[in-house]
């Protein structure tokens, strides 16, 4: 997808296909990259704020899924409860894509893994360190990185560990700690994310204090491999979870990560929404996109 787009090669494998995008939370990257992405594939997207849908007034997820399935070829949803996405998928006749829940953010992690592979060439055997809140992005990183044969270390304050269902899936690949230095020492990639996720705004003040020792700054980065990457899904609160200096030093790979959301999501949509013969996308050529 990236190679085709960068070289202006036709890849309109979703001509005439429609994607409904339901948002119950804010978004910059997810909304724009899905919408631009499906346009580049020849399809169209509908932005549907949850509050503007009858869903926001109590219409059931089941009826929403059944009706939208009559109109569109795929549904992307960003919402609070993971179980709502699963309920939507259960009743939908078209593919449902998780655009972030309180529990997970799988599209983000596919883009992150793509970015790491572009920079480090291989994923297997590399060590990723997560520092901060054991949140939705962290849960997906644990599962995604372990699936690709990476080692994961997660440093969180006590009580802010990742979800046990993510932890239980990966076994020995994961080490949990409360010490950011232990997590980052010798790491190939250092990840962080906001200390207060969407929906947790009421805890923001308390979280600022609890997470203060977990800032990714120059001192912490000096323990990682000298050529270590930094990844941040964005939006970032510079001066909180990541220092201005670390962000600026790694801005190139962080913006590449944001860009790769679109390429990855185009691949997800093409895989899920294309019909039979429309498969003729050129294979991903790593050396040409790095
Ligand atoms: N990283 C990410 O999902 O960004 P948005 O909240 O802007 O979509
Ligand atoms: N953990 C953040 C990610 C935003 C893309 C949140 O859920 O708000």
Description:
The protein has helices spanning 2-6, 29-40, 61-71, 82-91, 106-120, 136-147, 164-170, 180-184, 204-211, 218-221, 244-249, 251-273, 286-289; strands at residues 18-23, 44-49, 74-78, 96-98, 127-131, 151-155, 174-177, 189-192, 229-232. It is of the alpha/beta class and 290 residues long. The protein has a 5-stranded parallel β-sheet with strand order 7-6-5-8-9. It has a 4-stranded parallel β-sheet with strand order 2-1-3-4, sandwiched between helices. Helix 4 links the parallel strand 3 (74-78) and strand 4. Helix 5 packs across helix 12 (251-273). The longest helix is centred in the C-terminal third of the chain and has 23 residues, at 251-273. The model is unreliable at 278-286 (pLDDT under 50). It binds phosphoric acid mono(formamide)ester (CP) and norvaline. The site of norvaline has 9 residues, from helix 6.
What composes the largest sheet?
A: 5 strands, parallel
| Adjacency order of strands in the biggest sheet | 7-6-5-8-9
Specify the number of helices: 13
Order of helices and strands: HEHEHEHEHEHEHEHEHHEHHH
What does the oligomeric state look like here? single chain
| Basic shape | globular
Global Rg: 19 Å
Give a count of the beta strands, DSSP E runs of length 2 or more: 9
Structural class: alpha/beta
Name the bound molecules. Answer: phosphoric acid mono(formamide)ester, norvaline
Q: What share of the residues does DSSP label as strand, in percent?
A: 5-15%
